[in-house]
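Why run this: before we spend reagent on co-expression, it is cheaper to look at a predicted model of the complex and decide which construct boundaries make sense. The entries below are exactly what would go into the expression plan.
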Amino acid sequence: AQSVTQPDIHITVSEGASLELRCNYSYGATPYLFWYVQSPGQGLQLLLKYFSGDTLVQGIKGFEAEFKRSQSSFNLRKPSVHWSDAAEYFCAVGAGLTGGGNKLTFGTGTQLKVEL
Amino acid sequence: NAGVTQTPKFQVLKTGQSMTLQCAQDMNHNSMYWYRQDPGMGLRLIYYSASEGTTDKGEVPNGYNVSRLNKREFSLRLESAAPSQTSVYFCASSEPRALSYEQYFGPGTRLTVT
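The model came back. C-alpha cells follow.
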C-alpha cells in the first residue's frame, strides 16, 4: 500500500526567504505525485503534479517540485516566499482503485507560517 | 463553472442524529470521493464512486453510507452521528480517463457532533 510522509509539521520562514517542504513516498510502481495547498477554512487547491517526464515540475504561484526516484522524494520549493503563502501544504500519491477511479493517499500536512 | 460544491458548509449535530452531506460537480467527471480531514491525520478516504451506479468503501467507512444519485451528485449520510465523526468533510471528483489522477475538491463541510 502506498504511503506519504511529511516530516515537518510546522515550518516558519521570513517573507522573501526560500522555502523547501519535504515529502517522501512509498509506492511500488511509478508514482503519481501531487502537492495541494489549503488556506484556512478553504478546500484543497492543486499546486502541481508529476506523473511522467521531466522530474522538475512547475506549478502555480511560483512553486516547483522535484521528483527524485532514488530518494523516494517529491520536495516542494519556492525561491521567495510571500506572506500570502501561509497555509497548510499536503503531499499526496495517487494510485488506481479496483473497479476504477483513483485514490489519493495524503501526508499529514505541513503548516507554513510566514513572518513579515 | 462552479467545480465541486458542497452543502451545508457548517453543521452541528447531537449524538444519535442523522444527516446527509450533499456534493455536486459540474465537470462531467466519472469518479467522486468523500474524505474526512482530522488534525494531524491528513485526509482519509471514506467512500468513493468510480462511476455512476457504483460505490466502494475507502479506508474509514464505518458509520457512513453513500449514494451516487446520478453522474453529478454523490451524497454522504451519517445514520447515527457520534462525537468521533466530528471532522471536516471534503468531496472530490476526478476523470480517470485523463490518466493524471488529479482530483478536484469542494470547499468542505465542517461538522461538529456533541
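The interface with chain B takes residues 4, 9, 32, 34, 36, 42-46, 49, 51, 90, 94-104, 106-109 of chain A (CB under 8 Å). The two ends of chain A are 41 Å apart (CA to CA). Bring this page to Monday's planning discussion.
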